Amino acid sequence: MSLRTLVTDTDLPLESGGVVHKLQIGYHTNGTLNTAKDNVVWVCHALTANSDVADWWNGLIGDGCMINPEKYFIVCANIIGSCYGSSEPSSFDNIKSVVTIRDFAKAHKILAKHLGVAKIKLCLGGSLGGMQVMEWAIDSPDFFESIALIATSPKHSPWGIAFNEAQRMALEHPENGLETARAIAMLSYRNYETFHQTQTDEEHKTDNYLASSYMRYQGKKLANRFSKDSYYTLSKAMDSHDVGRGRDGIQNALSKIKAKTVVIGISSDILFPVSEQKTLNEYIPQSKFYVIDSVYGHDGFLIETEKIGEILNKELAI
Fold it and tell me: What is the pTM of this model?
């Protein structure tokens, strides 16, 4: 399914006090909403992804996968501030306006109403995607039958904020800023063992290392497809994540979730360590907790699709 766009004449007020003028939401749908309207799977994407979920989460979602369009009506909306079809930072009243995860959830609700979605069978996401899922499930607890929170946390950590700030510092430099920011991010997405297994040089060298070329490749790859302003805006949104803000703390906020919940951590994730998923499991009433053993670090939530699918099928009968 190709990209669709919901264009409104409505301004979206942001939690921070800013405004998105004439809200626009880019989105993809796959499959058909059934008569009972009870077959909706909504996917929330991560930082630099887009709404074409069958492309970047192939193996879990799409034709022939566990979550397939023959059975489910699959929806993924591009988050506001991104550069893949939704309102970009240039449409904000101030390009430096802080947009938050709660603002993303507010936009999702607008799209859900537009699509005629009355209830979601499963809402899932990893990393920043998981942040959106839990915010939405706290705000609208009766809207969800089940949710899956993967490699995410109830509040972004000082460690994660520090990584993001280092990336924003790189963005301040006009030459190769976005490429450098991505290289910094890759260090948090993977880990020592990942690089050891995949980027070790077989012969003795004094220059031109595999790890060096890999980092430059990843930097250029993102710079060719993403916007510097969007990267800045979305990294700030991730930093703002705190489900307990204005809700009497994290424990009280998570206790509002009514959906049957699966929480999944990645054993080697240094950006969102398993301890953060344990907190989610502890405070969400109907939750089951799993740890996937993977060498891929935080990126394991994108790569270990078979293991994730097995867990979802076991706990949620997907």
Answer: 0.95
